[in-house]
Specification:
This protein has 267 residues and is an alpha+beta fold. It contains eight helices and eleven strands. Strand 2 and strand 3 (43-45) form a beta hairpin. The longest helix is centred in the middle third of the chain and has 43 residues, at 78-120. The radius of gyration is 32 Å and the shape is elongated.
Length: 267
């Protein structure tokens, strides 16, 4: 009787479909064995079913759901199958678009992390840079404490979400006069967005800057004082304000490892 039947193990080898998947197809009613031995629980398939399983495997690889494949076998006409293929094609195009967006974000993140790693090697080493004007959004109003700063940052987060904006740089403009009175004072919060149309104001003017990368909690470090000494030793004069910016916006690090850039304009 079983000369024209194949065991579930034989079918698995022939179709490269795991036995667990064949049992699942049976359970959900997609394709059940032609015969089940109630005494041994063995499952047997016909040669025609092997062909059907290869079709199922092909359709699954193209992204068809179990329900779509069921519908295909239940109807088996060109119009219906064409409609199924068109639906899967649309879904596939949408998924490709989504994956391309994910790929772009992953590439940008990898580049950001690579840059951050390279910048960590430069922490504490002053350098001079001709900075082009950086445009963005200025959030006015000084903050003088951590609670005030956190509240201001929350307002910025709300603004970005409400307008579907994506920041690529955040930071602060600080006057030396206010900084000397209170190290936690920030004169303005500045943000540059990925969307160019949102960057209406010059947040960091073009000019010559002495820069240094810092790591950790800015307010607890003496990086400003050290850089001012270096500027004086090099024969330069600092202007009235400086800029503190962050480019790593994912913020997965602890505060002691956070990387920032201090820019002091010089004349």
């Amino acid at each position: 009787m079983f000369d024209d039947f194949f065991t579930i193990g034989d079918v698995s080898k022939s179709t490269n479909i795991p036995i667990s998947t064949l049992r699942y197809y049976d359970k959900v009613g997609l394709l059940s064995p032609a015969f089940k031995n109630e005494e041994t629980s063995y499952r047997y398939y016909t040669p025609k079913q092997i062909i059907m399983l290869k079709i199922i495997n092909h359709m699954r690889n193209m992204g068809f759901s179990i329900e779509y494949i069921k519908s295909h076998f239940e109807n088996m006409n060109y119009d219906h199958t064409l409609e199924l293929f068109q639906k899967v094609l649309l879904d596939t195009k949408a998924e490709i678009k989504r994956l391309k967006s994910v790929e772009k974000d992953l590439i940008e993140a990898c580049n950001r992390f690579k840059t951050s790693f390279e910048l960590e090697q430069k922490v504490g080493i002053p350098f001079i840079e001709e900075t082009p004007g950086i445009k963005g959004v200025i959030f006015g109003g000084a903050t003088h404490s951590l609670p005030e700063l956190h509240k201001a940052l929350k307002n910025v987060d709300d603004f970005e979400l409400a307008n579907n904006l994506h920041p690529v740089l955040r930071g602060f403009k600080v006057s030396f006069n206010n900084f000397e009175k209170n190290r936690f004072t920030k004169d303005h919060l500045i943000v540059s967005m990925r969307e160019e149309g949102a960057n209406l104001s010059v947040i960091i003017p073009a000019g010559r800057y002495v820069c240094v990368y810092g790591k950790g909690i800015f307010e607890e470090d003496d990086i400003v004082e050290k850089l001012l000494v270096w500027i004086k030793e090099q024969g330069y004069t600092p202007k009235e304000d400086f800029y503190l910016t962050f480019t790593d916006l994912i913020m997965f690090k602890s505060k002691k490892d956070f990387l920032y850039l201090l820019r002091i304009p010089i004349i």
